Amino acid sequence: MNPDEKKILEEQIKSKSLRHSQPREKILEVFVKANKHLTVQELYFLVKKKYPDTGLATVYRALKLICEAGLCREVRFEDGIARYEFVREGDHHDHLICIKCGRVEEIYDPEIERLQHKIYKKYKFIPHAHNLELYGICDKCSKKHLGGSK
User: How far is it, in rounded angstroms, from Cα 85 to Cα 28?
Assistant: First the structure.
């Protein structure tokens, strides 16, 4: 976790008139280091391994603050389960999602971004946001399927 992320969280805490809390920083640290899409439960288990005294309610509240601070966002894929991903400023990506194992791969493709802007312009839309989710079967799952059950 870089100092800017810590500072952003601290500013959010102050804006809510909350006290500084070490557990919130620890939860943010674990979340950033995980570097993947996590449910609250998954984040809780990761936090619990490193900081056993942390409760589930603390993780819920901290994650809510982290989202409000703009450091993460909730994403829901086809399965409807809420997952959270860390957000870096200026970072936009789309997702490849395996329908067998649930693996989520972030994709960064300037061509997708160019096409999106072309479509906005063609239909005279003002850009606000977009989410691109591509569903399929990842290479590991397809190899398992082709190779039989192992």
Answer: 11
SS3 call for 132: coil
Contact 91, 73 (CB under 8 A): no
User: In sequence order, what are the beta bridge partners of 94?
Assistant: 107
- pTM recorded for the entire structure: 0.75
> How do residues 11-20 score in pLDDT, each as one tens digit?
887 888 888 7
Alpha-carbon 114 to chain mean position: 23
Going along the chain from its start, the domains and CATH numbers come out as 3-86 (1.10.10.10), 94-146 (3.30.1490.190)
* DSSP-derived 3-state class of residue 56: helix
Is the pLDDT at 25 greater than 50? The verdict is yes
